[in-house]
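Case study: Transcriptional regulator.
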Amino acid sequence: MTASVRDDLLAAGLAVFDRVGFEAATVAAIRTRARASNGSFFHVFGSKKELAGALFLEVLRHYHAAILAALDPGPDAERGIDRLIRAHLDWVVTSRREARYLFEISRSEWGEDVRDAQRAQNARLAEGIERWRAPLVASGELLPMTPVMFVSQLIGPAQIFCRAFLSGRERTDPRIEADTLIACANRALRPFDRINKQ
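Here is what the predicted structure looks like once written out:
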């Protein structure tokens, strides 16, 4: 079985899940969209739930790659905060279907089978952010706090805003609020005297 069949099934799964949700999606609808036979589907995935888990990991990998790309090459604190928030907002808008799947459609009850792989991917993201962050904390450019607190202060407000956009409650492109989100993150993550030096 070629990788392209797997990719076609994942793309079809994403489209069907986005249109009707996980519960209403059927293997038949996914197969039809992917132009794949029943045998092809079950050769690659044992069930709709297995496809959903594989899709979750694939989308998560794409999201993490976009976030980590914002830190290459390693920026200073101000530019890093700016780039990370903009990377999040850009990915949500330009990959809206994937973002909806990751943040709105995916559910923990069918994600248990991929939990270890998800933890490994999350750990790689955390390590990448920490490689950039730790020297800036040591130099006083960023406030000391746990990595989890740092990410929650950095991405949390943007994530709340983006969820409203993804659900359709807010129709405005969330990138128009980038400057405000970045200013708020700077106040939460950097010493007051360092912000005012600019």
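For the exam, be able to explain this: The radius of gyration is 19 Å.
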